[in-house]
Amino acid sequence: MKLEEFPNNKISELLSWIKSEEDKQFWSGNTFQKGLNPKTFAIHLQRLNVSSHCFIGPKKSLIAYGEIVFSGLNNGVLCRVIINPLSRKNGVGKKFIGQLLIWAFHEKSLRKITLNTFGHNHPARKCYQSVGFKEVAFKKNFRRVGNRWRDLVIMEKVHPTIKI
């Protein structure tokens, strides 16, 4: 699998992986407060500071999706990473994020990439740590999802050749 730009004709397939309001919040935070649907997502993808990428499988099915949102000079935010439910727990996320980081650091010359994840999302945190992200902040009871308050973990990865 190789990193590709996300094609808009895969929006409906991608959104089919989001099964509940909780899934939507875990995946997109509060980005789509006016509703998440193919139209609002297509508008989101038109933002000039969003670069969306994916893995496409051998049968043209969507395997993985993620974005880099450019924020300030040479910084980015890794957002909305999601793996096809049928492809989870076999290293696809690690490979996808690894290739996305190579693209961001080498093709876009980013110096630092941050991300937010929920504290209870241990598989995601472990995956991010496996590609070099470090936890830099923990916000207790940061966001209400359904009827529960969730902790937020902020992680970052600095370009491997830059010492801070």
Write the layout of secondary structure elements.
Blueprint: E1 4-5, H1 11-15, H2 21-28, H3 38-45, E2 50-56, E3 62-70, E4 75-83, H4 92-107, E5 112-118, H5 122-130, E6 134-145, E7 148-158
Parallel strand pairs: 4-5
Antiparallel strand pairs: 1-2, 2-3, 3-4, 5-7, 6-7
Description:
It is a single chain. The chain is α+β, with helices and mostly antiparallel strands. It is built from five helices and seven strands; from the N terminus they run E-H-H-H-E-E-E-H-E-H-E-E. It has helices at residues 11-15, 21-28, 38-45, 92-107, 122-130; strands at residues 4-5, 50-56, 62-70, 75-83, 112-118, 134-145, 148-158. The protein has a seven-stranded mixed β-sheet. Strand 3 (62-70) and strand 4 form a beta hairpin. The longest helix has 16 residues, at 92-107. The protein is globular, with a radius of gyration of 15 Å.
What class, by secondary structure content? alpha+beta
User: Percent of residues in helical segments?
Assistant: 25-40%
* Tertiary shape: globular
* Major pleated sheet: 7 strands, mixed
Low-confidence spans: none
Order of helices and strands: EHHHEEEHEHEE
Number of helices: 5
How many beta-strand elements?
7
Strand content: 25-35%
Going across the biggest sheet, name each strand in turn. 1-2-3-4-5-7-6
Radius of gyration: 15 Å
End-to-end gap = 33 Å
